[in-house]
Every structure is written in structure tokens, then in C-alpha cells.
């Protein structure tokens, strides 16, 4: 679950790191907590937002990081009262969103260290991580202690894991299991056709592991 992402007419996609929008971030967080409480969702994605139009990333990076850290500490305190986890997700700036402020797991890890709150975690979308940095095995191993949620999609088409592309998902799933990941895997992809038929990749994965449906790691569509 995530708070309102700001004003779409102004090109906003998240407010966490956007200077001058702290009040709106807090209002959105309060609303998201209400929804999360109602649907019993323990994790909230705290979107960083975009570099303002007309600004150079390097020129505003320091101010945006300071704003993000301030907002994340505020959010961590609110979420701790609800026994909830806050998540920050790097979104690639090469294909998906050139102006998104948080774009690599390295940047996210550095910010989480500066914030220093145990109920803030990394939402690692393997699609974005592959596009920005690759080196997935080492990145998963390195950042595993920080990970609170995993998302998947094939690269570059952002379709089902068994669609043509760069990534070997059976290997990555087994790596996650070997690391002890017990959370959900979010299917953040655009189905090539019918959604249910598109889940054939999951049934095939279960069968390849000799499992009956539902005996593998939790997977959320």
C-alpha cells in the first residue's frame, strides 16, 4: 500500500523527498495508515518523488535527501505506533522515470543507514535493479538484511518472469530461498495477455520444484 502520490497534473509521483511538500506528505501518510489498518496491510511504500521540473539532479540532490530523511523519520515514528513497516523503492531512471529521485539500491541503503530506524526497509524491485546496476546475485546478498519486500518483472519488457528477457528467475527464486527470504514476491509486471493464464509461469515453477500448488514461497499477484 502507498500514500497518495501527489498532484499528477504537476507531474508528481510521490512526495517523500520533494522540498516544500512535507505537509502534504504527512497528510498522505495519515490517510495511508487508515487504509492499511482497515485492510490489515503491514507495509507502506513511501515514495520519494521526482526531481522538480527545471532543476538539475546534482544541484538539488542534497536538499532532496535531507527532506527525505526528515520525512522518513517522521513516518517511522507514526508507523511504529501501528506496528507497520515503511518501504522505500528505487525506480530506474534509464527507462521508467528519468526524474525519480531514488534510483539505485546503493542510494536507498545509504539513506536507510542515515535514517537509522529498524521499521524502514528496502523494497527491491528486481526489474529496476537489473536496469540500473545488474549484478543481481551480489546485490541480493549484500542488501538482503535491509529487504522488506521483493518485486519482479522480466527485463526489458516488464512482463511475466518466463517471457523473453535477460533474467533467470528460477535461479533468483532459489537464491532468495537460500538466503532465507520468507516474505511476499510482488508480481509487478504487465501481463502479455490474460492475467490468470499469465500465471502459468508460477505453476511451472512449482512443478519444477516437485511442489503442489501453494507449497512454495508466498507469491502475491
UniProtKB/TrEMBL annotation:
Domain Xylose isomerase-like TIM barrel intervals: 13-204
GO molecular function, one term: hydroxypyruvate isomerase activity
Top enzyme category: isomerase
Keyword field: Isomerase
Pfam families for this protein: AP_endonuc_2
Active site: 89, 188
Reaction(s) catalysed (UniProt annotation): 3-hydroxypyruvate = 2-hydroxy-3-oxopropanoate
GO biological process: glyoxylate metabolic process
Listed EC numbers: 5.3.1.22
Protein's job: Catalyzes the reversible isomerization between hydroxypyruvate and 2-hydroxy-3-oxopropanoate (also termed tartronate semialdehyde).
Family indicated by similarity: Belongs to the hyi family.
Protein known as: Putative hydroxypyruvate isomerase
Gene that encodes it: Hyi
Amino acid at each position: 500500500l502507498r500514500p497518495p502520490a501527489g498532484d499528477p497534473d504537476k507531474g508528481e509521483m510521490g512526495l517523500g523527498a520533494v522540498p516544500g511538500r512535507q505537509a502534504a506528505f504527512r497528510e498522505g501518510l495519515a490517510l495511508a495508515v487508515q487504509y492499511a489498518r482497515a485492510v490489515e496491510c503491514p507495509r507502506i511504500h513511501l515514495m520519494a518523488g521526482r526531481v522538480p521540473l527545471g532543476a538539475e539532479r546534482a544541484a538539488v540532490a542534497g536538499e532532496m535527501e535531507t527532506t527525505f530523511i526528515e520525512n522518513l523519520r517522521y513516518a517511522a515514528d507514526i508507523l511504529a505506533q501501528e506496528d507497520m513497516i515503511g518501504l522505500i523503492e528505487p525506480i530506474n531512471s534509464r527507462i521508467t522515470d528519468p526524474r525519480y529521485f531514488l534510483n539505485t539500491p546503493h542510494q536507498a541503503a545509504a539513506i536507510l543507514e542515515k535514517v537509522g530506524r529498524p521499521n524502514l526497509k528496502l523494497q527491491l524491485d528486481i526489474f529496476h535493479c537489473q536496469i540500473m546496476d545488474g549484478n543481481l546475485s551480489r546485490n541480493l546478498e549484500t542488501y538482503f538484511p535491509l529487504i522488506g519486500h521483493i518485486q519482479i518483472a522480466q527485463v526489458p519488457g516488464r512482463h511475466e518472469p518466463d517471457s523473453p528477457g535477460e533474467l533467470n528467475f528460477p535461479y533468483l527464486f532459489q537464491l532468495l530461498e537460500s538466503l532465507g527470504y520468507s516474505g511476499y514476491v510482488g508480481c509487478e509486471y504487465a501481463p502479455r495477455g490474460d492475467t490468470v493464464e499469465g500465471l502459468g509461469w508460477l505453476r511451472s515453477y512449482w512443478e519444477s520444484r516437485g511442489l503442489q500448488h501453494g507449497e512454495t514461497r508466498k507469491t502475491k499477484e
